[in-house]
Amino acid sequence: MKKSSFVATILGTISVIFFALGMCMAMVEEWNAFKPGIVVGCVGLVFALITVFVWRKMEHKAPIKITGKAVLTAVIGIVGALALGVGMCFCMVWNNMILGIVIGLAGIVILLCLIPLCKGLK
After folding, report:
1. What DSSP line would sit under 30-94, residue for residue?
2. Which of 3, 76, 90, 121 is most deeply buried (CB count within 10 A of its CB)?
């Protein structure tokens, strides 16, 4: 295993642990830790960004260029993931199955739209 892959694996694992713990803190009502959960989840997101920058630096890759397509791809990915998550919340937290399934399926369709956007159609 290359050193860059090992470092990326360690940093990625740390970021996922922080993000997952933050999500649990925010969603489990018995813990009564919504605001600290948001903070811990954001720390996980910051670690994920650091992981990307460190890995690219160790691989001697060029910095990421921000283009219109990259921004559109990120926005569509965020909207799709949020829609899927809101659909799951409707089903599991708020006991509204029909609306949750519809919103969750819309999120999945939005995420599937990323494939032709990233890879293109031939």
Report:
1. GG--HHHHHHHHHHHHHHHHHHHHHHHHHTTPPPPP--HHHHHHHHHHHHHHHHHHHHHHHHHTS
2. 90
Run of H or E residues at 102: helix 97-112
- The Cα 90–Cα 27 span in angstroms is 13
Cβ proximity of 70 and 114 under 8 Å: no
Closest to 6 measured CA to CA, from 59, 62, 64: 59
pTM of the model: 0.66
Digit-coded pLDDT (tens) for 19-70: 999 999 988 888 899 999 999 999 999 999 999 999 999 999 988 888 999 8
